[in-house]
Amino acid sequence: MKSILFLVLAAGTAGAQWMNVQSLAVGREIRVSLADGKSFRGQVQSVTDESLIVVAANSQQTLPRAEIRKVATKADSHRMRNTFIGLGIGAGAGVAIGAGTDSQCSPHCFIGNNLGKEILTPLGAVIGTIIGVAWPTGLWHNVYRSK
Predict the structure, then answer these.
(1) What is the pTM of this model?
(2) pLDDT bucket at 90, cuts 50 / 70 / 90
(3) How far are the Cα atoms of 15, 44, 46, 72 from residue 146, in angstroms, in the given order?
């Protein structure tokens, strides 16, 4: 009885996942892995209950659902957002470290009372921006995986 229930649940899950593939917009970038080890990267042309049609390398490929093992979509790029977050965090860290450095300076400090903030704020902003630009973005997410 448990094995029958498992098969029914597994079939229902695969069907629900295929609905994720069917809901993909035409032109969406995808990566498809087949049972024989081949893979295709391209844009969705159309999806039926039995197949997926992909435009890959200027040719149209009809891939039978029974041969498809995995379909993944590429997430939207957030590089600009990550850049600004890095800039803000870096500048904030620079101000905080600079303020700590400046607080150690006595009133008779020959380098000035705000030099730490004036140097470390832009330095932190530059370092944070570089990290934000380099942060991975637009990763692949599975929308379908067969048994």
Answers:
(1) 0.59
(2) very high
(3) 9, 18, 19, 12
